[in-house]
């Protein structure tokens, strides 16, 4: 499973990229606003840090303007992935861009039928929002299971990018279902490393090692 980080904070991206486990980055207008940075400038910086896809979202609601925005965004770097909302205009834009060989991430997906449409429109990634699904009394993981089944039925190449990930259990469940990618805030990715028994084990080994009086170096 690929790991993307869902943030526009440069330092957090650098820290995760240094682990060698980061495969891409997703941003959205809310994350850009939170960063306080210029959209195009911060996107260029992120693209220089990470080799994999960096999602940059259009903000127009009509197809013609989405295409104009995408034209500007995709010139920022080769690894920019244009993010469009799951609307009629968004999918028209997805179809046009993907036909030209541009990576497209279709966002704000809340149903398996929407995911089917995105795959037919040639999306590189579909982003079902599991956390927001859970928030509204549905099971976000049921949605991932349905999309996995549909995509496998028809051998769609569109990758399932589990988004709106709120905790490590979402990551585990998405991996068990066979999602292709998950995007999570930096804290959730760092939480994946943690286990109380790992910490306790290190503490015990360090205490016993000190008793030997030895040094490896
Ligand atoms: O990037 C989109 C998505 O991951 C947003 O997550 O936590 O705002 O629902 P959240």
Q: Which features characterize this protein?
A:
about 220 residues; alpha/beta; eight-stranded parallel β-barrel; TIM Barrel
Explain the overall architecture.
- This protein has a single domain, classed as Aldolase class I (TIM Barrel, Alpha-Beta Barrel).
- Helix content is 52%, strand content 17%.
- It has eleven helices and eight strands.
- Helix 4 links the parallel strand 3 and strand 4.
- The chain is globular.
- The protein starts with a strand and ends in a 5-residue tail after the last helix.
- The mean pLDDT is 98.
- Bound molecules: SN-glycerol-3-phosphate.
- The site of SN-glycerol-3-phosphate (G3P) has 9 residues, from helix 7.
Order the strands across the largest sheet as they lie in space: 1-2-3-4-5-6-7-8
According to CATH, what is the class?
A: Alpha Beta
Distance between the termini: 37 Å
Instruction: Kindly report the average pLDDT value.
Output: 98
User: What compounds sit in this structure?
Assistant: SN-glycerol-3-phosphate
Q: Look up the CATH topology.
A: TIM Barrel
Number of domains: 1
Helix fraction by DSSP (H/I, runs of at least 4) = 40-55%
Shape: globular
**What is the CATH superfamily?**
Aldolase class I
